[in-house]
Every structure is written in structure tokens, then in C-alpha cells.
Design a protein that fits this description.
Structural class: mainly alpha
Largest sheet: none
Order of helices and strands: HHHHHHHH
Number of helices: 8
CATH topology: TerB-like
Oligomer: single chain
Shape: globular
Helix content: over 70%
CATH architecture: Orthogonal Bundle
Length: 133
């Protein structure tokens, strides 16, 4: 059947959150809440911890995960995945160079144009998404 939008959003958010090598409890809670906001379903903490274990083990390369998202999601689904990555990258108020580079890599991997990327990561665009408008 393939991966669901929620699964792809969750797994890519974990990748971004773990760019520093670990996922703190506050990041885990934020990630779960934001997945719920974007997909309508809050994942169980254990499910996210399993995603973390996968990232640590490097079971699925990011390129492969992005190819799966590209193949299985429509344009709207890919936008949601990109927003999710941006939300978790900016959650602590800073976007270190490594996270910024990862966001660009994700946008390219999802075939999101530079103009669309700028729109998706603008503060106003993000506010509209989180408000559900």
C-alpha cells in the first residue's frame, strides 16, 4: 500500500530535528503536535521513537525517503512535508546552517521550485497553514 502522508511527514520531521544527532523531549512533543496539526492525526510517542531509531541506524537514506514522497504524494502532500520540515527546523527560533542546507535538500528532493519554497517558508504562509486557512 505504501507510506501514508502522516508517516512521511513524521519521518522527515525526525530527520530535520535530529540534524544535531539527537531528539530532545521538547522536540519530540513539538514534533508530535505539529504532525497532528498538519495531518489531522497525532502519532504515538513510541511510533516517533521508532522513527528516531531508524534514523540513528540510517535504515533509509534521506534521498530514498524523498523519492518515496515524490512518487506517492501529490503536490499538496509534498507541500505539507516541506512545511513540516520547516516547522521543526525553526521550532527553537534558530536555523543553523546544517538545518538550512537540509531544508533546501528536502525542497529539491520533493521537486519544489525555489519560488514555491520561499512561499512555503514565509512566516505569513506558515501562519496560514497552522491556522488551517
Amino acid at each position: 500500500m505504501g507510506e501514508s502522508l502522516e508517516s512521511l511527514v513524521r519521518r522527515i520531521m525526525v530527520r530535520v530535528a535530529m540534524v544535531d544527532g539527537e531528539l530532545h523531549d521538547a522536540e519530540l512533543a513539538r514534533l508530535r503536535w505539529n504532525v497532528g496539526r498538519l495531518t489531522g492525526r497525532v502519532p504515538e510517542e513510541q511510533r516517533v521513537r521508532e522513527d528516531v531509531a531508524e534514523v540513528v541506524a540510517r535504515a533509509v537514506p534521506l534521498e530514498e525517503l524523498l523519492a518515496t514522497a515524490r512518487d506517492r504524494l501529490d503536490a499538496q502532500g509534498r507541500r505539507i512535508v516541506m512545511r513540516a520540515a520547516y516547522i521543526i527546523a525553526t521550532a527553537d527560533g534558530e536555523v543553523p546552517a546544517a538545518e538550512d542546507a537540509l531544508l533546501v535538500e528536502i525542497a529539491r528532493g520533493l521537486e519544489i521550485s525555489p519560488a514555491e519554497y520561499r512561499r512555503l517558508v514565509s512566516p505569513m504562509g506558515l501562519a496560514r497553514v497552522l491556522e488551517g486557512t
